Amino acid sequence: PLRLVGWSFGAAVAAEMALLAAGRGTDVRALTLLDPPPLAPGERADPAVPAGLLAAVLPGWSTERVRTELDRLPAGPARDRAQDLLSAYPSGADDPVLLDRVTALLHNQAALENWVPRGGLAHVTIVLSAATAARWTDLAGWQRLAESVDVRTVPGDHTSMLRDAGAERVASMLDQEDLA
């Protein structure tokens, strides 16, 4: 049996993997989504989320500033868009690690924008960071995709939830036999 776990963009990947595995007759014992992208009313991933994640790796830029900068970028490969975005960010164009992170986030954004979630999931456990839980209260998109949804909260925000007390709580949840 499989126990699938995905964080952030990986949550969407884990959900799709669960559907594919179940469709092939594989027992998916547990599907746990850690701070998954919220699904908009049309059951697509919310496009505002990647801007927020980009703002988190670009100190000094608000989510709104990132959205404005993204809107001005021409269509094209994620790496080119990342270079264009970072050309407007102080010292961003000279930081190869930052370029790689922004490129990855833009790849994920494009994948989420094209992903059409399918229903048919059995039980899903959603683990939200406290910061995400405070602003994201509508789980209807994920609830429409699964027979049942259990929501849990851990300390921290999107990135810190997998460090220190948040990581310990997540690990404890994953170790529980009744998580399925």
Question: Could you characterize the architecture of this molecule?
Answer:
With 180 residues, the protein is α/β, with parallel strands linked by helices. The protein folds into two domains: 2-45 and 117-179, 3-Layer(aba) Sandwich (Rossmann fold), CATH 3.40.50.1820; 48-113, no CATH class. Helices cover 49% and strands 17% of the residues. The protein is built from eight helices and four strands, in the order E-H-E-H-H-H-H-E-H-H-E-H. The protein has helices at 9-23, 48-57, 63-72, 78-87, 96-114, 130-135, 140-145, 164-175, and strands at 2-7, 28-34, 121-129, 146-154. Strands 1-2-3-4 form a four-stranded parallel β-sheet. Helix 1 links the parallel strand 1 and strand 2. Helix 2 packs across helix 3 and helix 2 (48-57) packs antiparallel against helix 5. The mean pLDDT is 85.
Low-confidence stretches: none
What can be said about the biggest beta sheet? 4 strands, parallel
Number of DSSP-assigned strands:
4
Number of helices: 8
Brief summary of the model shown:
Strands 1-2-3-4 form a four-stranded parallel beta sheet. Helix 2 packs antiparallel against helix 5 (96-114) and helix 4 (78-87) packs across helix 5. It has two domains: 2-45 and 117-179, Alpha/Beta hydrolase fold, catalytic domain (Rossmann fold); 48-113, no CATH class.
